[in-house]
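FAQ: What does the model actually see?

It sees only this:
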Amino acid sequence: MYGAEVMLLNLMEEQIKLGMAPVIASIGEKNIPEKPVETEAVQRGLHVEKFRMTPGPNVLGAYAILKYAKINRFDIIHSHGYKGNILLGFIPKKLRKIPMISTLHGYTSTSGLTKMRVYEWMDLFSHRFIDHVVIVNKGMLTNPKLKNQKIKYHIINNGIPTNPTNPINPSNTTNPSNSTNPSNPSNSTNSTNPSNPDIEDFCKGHFTIGTIGRLSKEKGYEYLIKALSIIRQKNVNAKLVIIGEGKERKHLEALVKAYELSDHVLIPGYRKNANQYMPYFSVYAISSLTEGLPITLLETMFARIPVIATTVGGIPDVLEHEESGIMVEPCNPEAICHAVTQLFEDIKLREKLATSAYEKVVSAYSSRQMALNYLTLYKSSLCD
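And it is asked to produce this:
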């Protein structure tokens, strides 16, 4: 699962605690047996209803979801992606009857007249017919795709569980980034026992830059690879781990080969509960060209891993430069190199950033507060 799915499940768990009864209406193609978010939801004890249909604007699929919602007397329809927006957003409110809210988590990079580009246009147009549209931070308003929309967007920050039982809670694991030896920060034992020792073995004994996300253009991972090439030229014994899968894999692997970094970059693919590997990272890097409010950023802050991140989306609203993280301009491998080298050489700065970031996420970005903010919007929708 990636950030939006993680946020959705965290939100549902908090909503149940608040007395609500959320259900995931999971949309998928007919040949998909079970999606990762469905598997994880069931394991968490959450209610999932699968809706399988042919791809594209499926009228019968939309009718099936709406019929299910009406039969079960749902009060709110809350969409978390373009599929739900396109299927249900265009249905006139008089026919839909149930108030609809949509949360925008961000947009992937699209160009040309592709199927995804058409879906993106339809998604953006659907916002005009949805009762309330939420963005996950005010920085998203600078996105050209949203800036010209004549819509009043609501802002509700993402949140994560900040309770002691969260497996990435620093009290539950020994964080290698706190090692006193900056060139050998990954010798500690991680109590979360990840099931893929390839990542653990790769990181052990090295200053490791880690990142988690879909391998897509807007994540800017090519700039991390270019930065690592510069870093190693400075005799910094650093490695890079990019956990995720996507269309950019071949391009990224070609870059790794071109820069002769095959022994220093690991792209292990998709990993379930990938945040369990965060304690093996010396620093966490977000190189995105565009963002909403990344869940992995909040998780990293909670895990007390120092963060290097680009100044896009809602990231500058969360991180303060050299107080709770290191901020760099997007598309700038030299700036990433400078930030990594700075943290490699200064363990006190790493500890300061990690502590400050942890305190901020606990105080301001909990999933509990996120759920309360959505509850307020739900109540407002029912009164419209």
